[in-house]
Design goal:
The chain is mainly alpha-helical. It has 32 helices and 7 strands. It is globular and about 100 Å long.
């Protein structure tokens, strides 16, 4: 391809390439060049293609009126069964969706799909199916339909190797999984998406966005910040309005979670203004939801209520049921917190929306507000409460090395609350069991070894009550815990999918001989709060043995690769833990020799000799003695 494409086909191909890469102004120039060439030759079909290519770029820029004007010009030039007509109808559909004409947009897309099937145009069929999924089904909360449409689109793309189209269906499926509180499924789709998306493109921006949201969901603020920086830079470079709005809303959420409310408000208001300026009502509704959350956090209850009602007005007018249900739930929670007399009616409205739409996952993603509302207005035998019990709770992340820390989803548990009445001890005790389960009597005895049986039982139930409340503070008292189960004389802990316990990962790293990972993970003493608790002693020694093996193996690996300083550091750490470890001393002496420091090697040996004599009334092995004696011989040579 030359720098200045000369033919119509070359201009169109390059225009489409530039549009996919996000270089929209260049795409427009090339499309208009193709239009001039096709008009000069009297080729109406090519002229229609050029107009549609130009319209696609204007659509990405948010200039929907110009986009639709160009498409209508194209349709006037081509026949009723033209491939250009198929793509033109598709673009009219997505433009209508972006400008709040949902029914009109759906009609255009369905017409495009029908014509694609009639003409056997699988390329356009895949694109139209994806647009129907992303623009109609997903915003309406029709998640099953959205997944089916995009799965069909992806099958078509794979059958014909339409690699440039892969990213759209993969992205929408990942987004649906995230909305439906299925983080692991979302991550798996993102892995596949990252293999096909063009760096610096719109799809790449959405990859950063979803990774940022997932990181915020699990409380990883460092990873979220990195993704948000990349997202903002890319969204501003591309200038695509929808990405600029999502970038600002994600940044607002990040700041809200960090309790930086004034800064978060600035970002949310900016997102709302951009959405209002271009007439993107759906995203304006989402911005109002975020503004309502922030106003509530800031104590501005009247502003929060106004924002939630504005969001509902917009979303209901467009039949966007999923986001409308979220807004209704947040409004009900706000009214309940203010003890407003209309709160119960608002909850009835919200719960009806959730049940009718099948949006039970909203009770998980909005767990705090949903918990308060269900505690006040729901009974355990009700339909909503039963479906809530089927939802997997947020994953747990447990850190035990260097001090116990627990995260429930993105929320870190207050350690002071967890320590009350041995709730923390019960949690760790169950985590250490092979099946995370113990007979109640045994658990009570281990928690209170010197108490009477009746006092131990009382202590156990107090610990289990604290643990239940700390893990699910918003769970109504009448609802059974989704983490802790006491039944048939046994107490069991359930870890949801995606949970992480550091000492379990330590065991896995050791099994697979990932010694550096072992050392990075075991940063500190295992449960220093329980140094004198009898049932932790055996486990602490086991983990210490694993760490000592990892130090020795890493020292050996570094010595083999002539990284003598690192090898010596690992040896010193190991000797500090185990002063009689002769193999560590031998490796340390070899590392010193590698560094040309014979005197340091002698000191390491002499320290070992003194330690063995003092502590064990013993002497070093013959092997290490012989190695020490060889130091003088090496110097003479």
């Amino acid at each position: 391809m030359s720098d200045n494409p000369a033919s119509i086909a070359e201009c169109l191909a390059e225009s489409q390439k530039q549009e996919r890469a996000g270089n929209l102004s260049e795409a427009i120039v090339l499309a208009r060049q193709a239009l001039v060439l096709s008009s000069e030759s009297g080729d109406n079909e090519s002229a229609g293609q050029a107009l549609v290519a130009c319209a696609q770029a204007y659509f990405r820029l948010g200039n929907y009126s110009e986009c639709e004007n160009l498409v209508h010009q194209a349709l006037e030039r081509v026949g009723e069964e033209s491939q250009v007509r198929v793509d033109g109808l598709r673009i009219l559909g997505v433009s209508a969706l972006e400008t709040n004409r949902m029914n009109e947009g759906e009609d255009y897309l369905r017409t495009s799909i029908a014509l694609s099937r009639q003409l056997g145009s699988d390329h356009q069929l895949a694109r139209s199916l994806h647009n129907l999924s992303a623009g109609v089904y997903m915003p309406r909360g029709q998640f099953d339909l959205s997944l089916q449409a995009d799965q069909e689109a992806l099958r078509i793309c794979r059958r014909h190797d339409y690699t440039e189209l892969y990213w759209g269906p993969l992205l929408t499926q990942a987004w649906v999984r995230w909305l439906d509180s299925q983080p692991e499924a979302c991550r798996e789709l993102l892995k596949e998406l990252e293999q096909v998306v063009l760096p610096g493109s719109l799809g790449d921006g959405y990859v950063h966005l979803l990774h940022a949201q997932l990181s915020m969901d699990c409380g990883d603020s460092v990873a979220a910040e990195l993704e948000l920086v990349n997202l903002f830079s890319l969204s501003e470079r591309l200038g695509i309005p929808e990405l600029r709005i999502f970038s600002r809303l994600a940044r607002s959420r990040f700041l809200r979670l960090a309790k930086q409310i004034p800064s978060a408000i600035t970002w949310a208001e900016d997102a709302r203004k951009i959405a209002a300026d271009i007439g993107y009502r759906h995203l304006e509704g989402l911005a109002f939801i975020e503004i309502g959350r922030l106003a509530k956090k800031n104590g501005g209850y009247q502003k929060a209520e106004s924002a939630f009602r504005d969001a509902l007005r917009i979303l209901d007018s467009m039949a966007l049921r999923y986001d409308a249900a979220r807004a209704a739930l947040l409004l009900a929670a706000l009214l309940h917190d203010q003890q407003d007399s209309s709160a119960q009616l608002a909850w009835i409205d919200a719960s009806s929306r959730i049940l009718e739409g099948g949006f039970i996952s909203l009770l998980k993603s909005e767990a705090e507000d949903a918990g308060h509302l269900m505690a006040a207005y729901e009974q355990p035998g009700g339909i909503l409460s039963e479906r809530y019990q089927l939802l997997p709770p947020p994953p747990l992340r447990v850190v035990t090395f260097g001090g116990l820390r627990i995260w429930v989803g993105e929320r870190e548990v207050d350690y002071r609350e967890l320590r009350k009445r041995r709730g923390a001890d019960l949690l760790v005790l169950l985590l250490l069991q092979p099946r995370r389960s113990l007979p109640v009597e045994q658990a009570a005895d281990m928690l209170s070894p010197r108490a009477s049986p009746s006092a131990a039982q009382t202590g156990f139930y107090q610990a289990s009550s604290v643990l239940r409340r700390v893990l699910e503070p918003d769970l109504p008292e009448k609802f059974p815990s989704r983490y802790l189960k006491v039944d048939n004389g046994f107490v069991s802990l359930h870890l949801p999918e995606g949970s992480s316990v550091d000492f379990e990962r330590l065991n896995e790293y050791s099994r697979t001989q990932q010694w550096q990972a072992v050392l990075e993970l075991a940063d500190g003493v295992f449960l220093p709060e329980n140094l004198y608790t009898e049932w932790t002693t055996l486990y602490r020694q086991r983990f210490m043995d694993t760490i000592e093996v990892a130090l020795f193996e890493r020292a050996h690996e570094c010595l083999q690769s002539e990284q003598y300083l690192n090898a010596l550091e690992y040896c010193r750490r190991l000797i500090a833990l185990e002063p009689w470890h002769e193999q560590a001393v031998m490796l340390g002496m070899q590392a010193c020799l590698g560094l040309g420091n014979r005197s340091a090697a002698r000191r390491i040996y002499q320290n070992l000799t003194k330690t063995l004599q003092r502590d064990l009334s013993s002497v070093p092995s013959e092997e290490i003695q012989a190695y020490y004696q060889s130091l003088d011989q090496r110097r003479k040579k």
